[in-house]
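# nightly structure sweep
# worker-07 picked up a monomer target from the shared queue
# config: single-sequence mode, recycle default, output format = structure tokens
# input follows
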Amino acid sequence: MKEVVGNLWDYLGRVPVCITTGGMVTPRGDCAMPRGCARQARDRFPELSGQLGRLIREKGNHVHDLDNGLVSFPVENSPFDVPGLGLIERSCAELLALVEERGWPQVLVPRPGCGGGGLQWHEVRPILQKYFDDRFLVIRAKE
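# output follows
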């Protein structure tokens, strides 16, 4: 995996961009996307929360290839939960399988669970390293 610094949205349209998500679906059927890059994606693409909500209801809280060059990367089951290292590891394995299936030469992933989720990068990094090769760009925001 390669670590980069920058703005996640600068990569949109160039490579598939993962957004860290949760599995909570509102009574209206939308995926709750209250903070972080999930909220930014929801604000950019208003139909996204409905699309992801449908996928979660039909297929579960998993990695999903979404519209607009986005990929969901579950880190928590609810915005009220702390991101789980086990769920992050499952998402890594699912993303690797999707990258293989689609033949993507690169994909961008934010540091999962390390922003609003409160996890520390030193906890999460070893999990990603087990699954991600040089096709995976892991981005952190400029400070």
